[in-house]
Amino acid sequence: MTLADAKNLRPGTLLHYTGRQSCTRTVGPRGGVTTNVVTFKVTGQPKTWKNSADRVKVPVKFGLYEHAYLTEMNLSDFHLASDCPA
User: Fold this and answer.
1) How far apart are CA 61 and CA 73, in angstroms?
2) Domain boundaries, the chain
3) pLDDT tens by residue, 24-81
4) What whole-number distance in Å separates Cα of residue 33 and Cα of residue 36?
5) Beta 47-48 vs 38-42: how paired, if at all?
6) CB–CB of 77/19 below 8 Å?
């Protein structure tokens, strides 16, 4: 994900996290499909700074109780759910 993509995120957008493992889709021997995807949901507007254009902070949620922030440091670990290669 690029910095421009992160600045254009809206609440409710789904993201896939690929930090630990990439998104995979496996077809079993009897035709069953298993997908391994870690999904995050954007919960607020992106925060940007006027004096530092290369910074962004986006609140995201994972599961029922876990909250985190998408920042410029971890942008490479996420991609949009609509752009998922699996």
Assistant:
1) 17
2) 3-83
3) 888 989 988 888 889 999 999 999 999 999 999 999 999 999 999 999 999 999 999 9
4) 10
5) unpaired
6) yes
